[in-house]
Amino acid sequence: MTATDLVDRLAEHKTLGAAPREELAWLASHGSVRHLDAGDVLTSKGARVEGLFVVLSGRVAIFVDRGAGRHKIMEWREGDVTGLLPYSRMVSPPGDTVAQEPSTILAVHRDHLRAMTRECHEITSILVHTMVDRARAFTSSDLHDEKMVSLGKLSAGLAHELNNPASAIERSATLLENRLEDAERATRALGASGLTDHQLAALDAVRESCLATRVHGVRSAIEQAEREEAIADWLADHGLDIAIAEGLAETAVTFEALDLLAGAVDGPALNAALRWTAAGCSVRGLASEIQEAALRISGLVTAIKGFTHMDQATVAEPVDLIQSLDNTVAVLKSKARAKSVAVVVDVERDLPRVRGFVGELNQIWANLIDNALDAVPDSGRVEVLANRERQRVVVRIVDNGTGIPAEILDRVFDPFFTTKPVGHGTGLGLDIVRRLVRHNDGEIAVESKPGRTEFRVVLPLAEIDGVGGPS
Q1: What are phi and psi of 98, to 5 degrees?
Q2: Distance, CA of 383 to CA of 38 (rounded, Å)
Q3: Do residues 67 and 426 lie in contact, with contact meaning Cβ atoms separated by under 8 Å?
Q4: Any residues with CB less than 8 A from the CB of 161 and at least 6 apart, and which?
Q5: Deepest in the core among 20, 239, 451, 457, taking most CB within 10 A?
Q6: Which CATH superfamily is domain 3-119 in?
Q7: C-beta separation of 315 from 357 below 8 A
Q8: For 195-200, which contacts have Cβ atoms below 8 Å and span 24 or more sequence positions?
Q9: Residue 269 near residue 199 (C-beta atoms within 8 A)
C-alpha cells in the first residue's frame, strides 16, 4: 500500500476522515500498517500499550476475565480507533485485545503522540472525544458487570432464605392433610362416646392447655423420643392405646392436663378424647407453622423490595439509613449464618436522614458488608455502625478479619484490584462503591490493621439545622 493509498483510506475513515488531508498524511507517514489474522493478539493484559491503533478493516475486541470467565466488553470495527489515545493515562489494558477476523491496523507508536498533538490539532480533537466516549463505555460496562455480580449474590442469598420457609410450608401442608383425616376420624369417635358436659369441659381444658403452651425451639430427636416414651408409659398405666403417644408427643400437652382428663373420662371414651386432642392440637400447630413460614417469606420480600428500592423512582431523596442498613443485613443474613458470623447493627437513636439515591446506597452497604463477611473467619464478627457527626452521617463497616496489608491498602479502590482468590472477586466492587459514594456527595476511607478493618462512609444530611436540602 502506497502512502497516497493509505491517506486515501484514512480520508474515508469514519472517525478520522473529517481531519485535513495534511494531518492524515502526517499520521500515515508516522505509522506502520499491520495485518492480523483471526485470533492474533493486538495488546495483552498487563503489557504496555505501544501506541494508537486505527482500524482500517476487520474487527478487534477486548476480552476481560472478572472472575467468572473471559467475556467481551468492547469491540472496534473498520472506522474505529483504539489503543493509546492523546492525554489518556492508560498504561496497560484490563484484558487481551484480539482480532476477531483478518484485520488491517495502522499503528502509530506512543513516542509520536506528543508530536501528533502539536502537528495534528483536528485529529487530536477527534481522538480526545473518542477517549471520552470510550471511558464512558468502559464505566457503563463496569457498572453493569458489578450490578450483575451483586444480583447473583442477592439471588443466591434470597433463594437460600426462601428455601427454608418454603420447604416448611410444603412439609407442614403434607402433614396437615394426614392430620385432618385423623381429626375427622377422632371427631366421629368422640361424638359416639356421648360425653357429658362435665367431661367435655375437662376435655376443653386439656386442649386449651395444649394450645396455650408453645414449644420453644425444636426438640432434639433424643428429647422427642424420651417424651414419646414417657407418654406411652402414661397411656399404658391407664390401659389406653399407646399408638396415641406419637401424636400426643408432638403437642405441648402436659401430664397434669392428662391426669385431669383421666379423672373425668375413662375407658374407650378417654381413648377417643385423647385422639381428638392430639389431632386437633397437631392441626393447629401445623397451621401455625405454615403461617409463620408465610410471614417469613413476606418479610423477606419486604426486605428485598426495600433493598432494591424497586417501587420508587431513582431520584435523590431523603433516605432512612436505619431501614437501608437493616434491609441489606437481612439480605445477607444467610451468608452470615453459613459462617456463624455475628452481624451487629448499632445505629444512633433518631439518626437523621441523608440525601441520596437509596438504591445506590443499598448497593454500597451490600458490597462493604459482603466483603466484610468474606474477610472474617468462621464465628467472626462484623459491626455496622452509624451516627451523626456535626452536619454529616458516618457509617462504619468494621470486621475482625486478618486485615489488609499496609503495602496494598492504598490500592483497594483501584479497578480490577482484588485480594480474593481467582473466581471469587471481580476487583470492581470497591471501585464501584467509591463511584457511588461520590455520586451521593459522600466520602469513603479505609483503615486496617490485623484484627480490625474499618470502611468509613460519610454522607450529607438531608436537612441541615432544620433547613431542607436541594430538591
Answers
A1: -125, 140
A2: 52
A3: yes
A4: 300, 333, 334
A5: 457
A6: Jelly Rolls (2.60.120.10)
A7: yes
A8: 195/265, 195/269, 195/273, 198/264, 199/264, 199/265, 199/269, 199/273
A9: yes
| Amino acid letter, 165 | P
Strand partners, 52: 83, 108
Alpha carbons 109 and 313: distance in angstroms, whole number: 48
End-to-end CA distance of the chain: 61
What the block records as the C-alpha cell of 36 is 492480523
Place of cell 491503533: 53
* Residues 432, 87: Cα–Cα separation, whole Å: 24
CATH of segment(s) 313-468: 3.30.565.10
Tell me the domain boundaries of the chain: 3-119, 156-299, 313-468
317's enclosing H/E stretch is strand 317-319
Longest dimension (CA), the chain: 115
Residue 83's closest CA among 64, 102, 60, 67?
Answer: 60
Crossing angle for the helix pair 3-11 and 21-29, nearest 10 degrees? 130
DSSP state of 112: G
277 grid coordinates: 386432642
- The one-digit pLDDT tens for each residue of the chain (471 residues) are 788 889 999 999 989 988 999 999 999 999 999 999 999 999 888 788 888 999 999 999 888 775 555 767 788 899 889 888 876 666 677 788 899 999 999 999 989 988 998 999 999 899 888 887 776 666 655 555 555 555 555 666 566 567 667 776 887 788 888 778 878 887 888 888 888 888 888 788 777 766 654 444 445 667 778 888 998 999 898 888 888 888 778 777 788 888 888 888 888 888 888 888 878 877 877 787 788 777 767 766 765 665 555 545 456 789 899 988 887 787 677 678 778 888 999 999 889 999 988 878 887 898 899 889 989 999 899 999 999 998 899 999 999 999 998 888 888 887 655 555 444 444 446 877 888 898 889 999 999 999 999 999 999 998 755 444 443
Q: Are 54 and 10 in contact (CB under 8 A)?
A: yes
d(CA 141, CA 145): 6
